[in-house]
Design the sequence.
């Protein structure tokens, strides 16, 4: 049933009714959308450097972008929540960015002795961050004790202007 019953003193019932209606009106303005995005694309699709249009909307509309931790392998989605209008725009940009990146995506593996991983990562991750900033890729270096190789997502030969999505 859609009916809510409020019981109590006359003054308290009126106040509760107004508060409930106010809360319902606020919640009607809030939305949430989940966009299906393969985990390997999460960081790339949401990168402020590659997707400025998305971050402009997130900042202006004060949206929340929920990206599952990389350790949750089964989560192939990104959720956007906040103002309904902004959520629809941000979800559309995410979907378009994802589709574009899937077309230009390349993945390679390199063999690098485990004892050299720490030199690439650098102090507090600074070496790896420098590589990521310079190339706009996602590098997955296995944790110590893992038997997995090191995949690196390579950027395409497109320029920054060609990779960037611009929305009016």
Sequence:
């Amino acid at each position: 049933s859609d009916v809510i019953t409020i019981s109590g003193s006359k003054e308290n019932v009126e106040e509760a009714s107004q508060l409930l209606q106010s809360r319902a009106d606020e919640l009607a303005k809030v939305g949430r959308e989940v966009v299906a995005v393969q985990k390997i694309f999460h960081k790339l699709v949401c990168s402020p450097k590659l997707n400025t249009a998305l971050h402009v909307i997130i900042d202006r509309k004060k949206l929340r972008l929920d990206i599952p931790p990389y350790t949750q392998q089964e989560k192939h989605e990104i959720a956007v929540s906040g103002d309904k209008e902004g959520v629809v725009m941000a979800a559309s940009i995410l979907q378009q960015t994802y589709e574009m990146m899937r077309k230009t995506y390349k993945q390679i593996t390199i063999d690098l002795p485990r004892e050299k991983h720490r030199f690439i990562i650098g102090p507090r991750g600074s070496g790896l961050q420098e590589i990521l900033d310079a190339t706009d890729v996602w590098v997955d270096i296995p944790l110590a004790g893992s038997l997995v190789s090191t995949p690196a997502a390579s950027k395409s030969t497109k320029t920054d202007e060609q990779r960037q999505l611009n929305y009016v």
Observations:
- Residues 84-104 form the longest helix (21 residues).
- The chain has a mean pLDDT of 80.
- The longest strand covers residues 30-36.
- Strands lie at 30-36, 64-66, 77-83, 106-110, 150-154.
